[in-house]
Write a structure and sequence with these properties.
Homodimer. Its EC number is 2.3.1.180. InterPro entries: ACP_syn_III_C, ACP_syn_III_N, FabH, Thiolase-like. Pathway: Lipid metabolism; fatty acid biosynthesis. The chain is of the alpha/beta class. It has two domains: about 15-180, Peroxisomal Thiolase, Chain A, domain 1; about 190-330, Peroxisomal Thiolase, Chain A, domain 1. About 30% of the residues lie in helices and about 25% in strands. It has nine helices and 14 strands. The strands form four sheets. Strands 1-7-6-4-5 form a five-stranded mixed β-sheet, sandwiched between helices. A five-stranded mixed β-sheet has the order 8-14-13-11-12, with helices on both faces. Strands 2-3 form a two-stranded antiparallel ribbon. Helix 3 links the parallel strand 4 (about 85-90) and strand 5 (about 115-120). Helix 6 crosses helix 7. It is globular and about 70 Å long. The protein starts with 13 loop residues before the first strand and ends with a strand.
Length: about 325
């Protein structure tokens, strides 16, 4: 018996990022506001992290609100209609509810319904995961345009007395519209995970434990030295592989935009990768803080604001964090 010919979808050969959007927490929180509970100083925080202040959201502002604001800016700048968006992908670890997803509500708020919508829980690598999936969805013919968002309200999961990570964290959202292109605008993504270090960045307890009374409200914590060594040495290898797969070298880059984990990590990255002085480096952490999945798009948005001449250049971006998960690719800046 002959089998009927099955039709498979296919789309354009290339994709690119059309535009970026951003939303930061409405509150400016300087180091001085945090040093008491951790028995520290402004000088210590600046020296160890490079952070002068971070942005956090008011109590009534959720990750959904931040995601929506960033998405609206990106869509407007992209010059497309919301109903042209075939998929909405939100990377987050701070959805205020277990279900439904942030993405479905954002799709409704921006007018992208009935676009496919789903959340990614890949922490600091989530935006690079989202860009990889947007590229694949469009080239597979499953969507004309894809809205990718990294959105976090990490201040909901901060213990003010924690010295490992609390003073690093901020709130915000960054968004990108990805669509078809007549040139290659997104390289192959190098991504993966290292579950052997699963507990290096995590929570102090579980929600089930909180409900049972076994632990307090779960807050974030990390093993700083483990994360630092892993990020600098292992992730530099991933970044180099991303350059190789893209068919370029560090000399071809206009910008380097890593996850905004820590300024010392960013500086060490630049040294290990031997980036030319001409390469612009995203350093949004200085005044925004570490915003996990939102950090790369927020840093990209700011870099383009400060250096509009970078538009059209190549940017190496890499995300890495809790899990431990990682993702890196080269993109053409919108």
């Amino acid at each position: 018996m002959s089998r009927p010919t099955l039709q498979q979808s296919h789309g354009p050969e290339f994709t690119r990022i059309y535009a970026m959007g951003a939303a930061r927490g409405d509150l400016v929180v300087p180091n001085e506001d945090l040093i008491g509970p951790i028995d520290s100083s402004d000088e210590w925080i600046r020296k160890r992290t490079g952070i002068i202040e971070r942005r956090r959201a008011s109590a009534e502002v959720t990750a959904v609100d931040l995601a929506t604001a960033a998405a609206r800016e990106a869509i407007e700048k992209a010059g497309i209609r919301p109903d042209q968006i075939g998929a909405v992908i939100v990377s987050t670890i701070s959805n205020p509810v277990v279900t439904p997803s942030i993405s479905t509500l954002v799709a409704e708020r921006v007018g992208a319904t009935p676009a496919a919508a789903y959340d990614i829980e890949a922490a600091c690598a989530g935006y690079t995961y989202g860009i990889a999936q947007a590229d694949s969805l469009i080239r597979a013919g499953l969507a004309e345009y894809v809205l990718v968002i990294g959105a976090e309200k990490l201040s909901d999961f901060v213990d003010p007395a924690d010295r490992s990570i609390s003073f690093l964290l901020g709130d915000g959202a960054g968004a990108a519209v990805v669509g078809p292109s007549d040139f290659a605008g997104i390289s192959k993504t190098i991504w993966g995970s290292d579950g052997s270090k699963w507990d290096a960045v995590g929570m102090t307890g579980s929600y089930v434990g909180f409900r049972r009374g076994d632990n307090e409200w779960p807050t974030m914590r990390q093993e700083g030295q483990t994360v630092f060594r892993w990020a600098v040495w292992e992730m530099a290898k991933v970044a180099k592989r991303a350059l190789d797969e893209a068919g370029i070298t560090a000399d071809d880059l206009t910008a380097f935009i890593p996850h905004q984990a820590n300024m010392r990590i960013i500086d060490e990255f630049a040294k290990v990768l031997k980036l030319p002085e001409s390469v612009l480096i995203g350093r949004d952490i200085e005044t925004t803080g570490n915003t996990s999945a939102a950090s790369i798009p927020l840093a990209t948005h700011r870099l383009l604001q400060e250096h509009p001449e970078a538009s059209g250049g190549l940017a190496l971006q890499i995300g890495f964090g809790a899990g431990l998960v990682f993702g890196s690719q080269v993109v053409v800046l919108p």
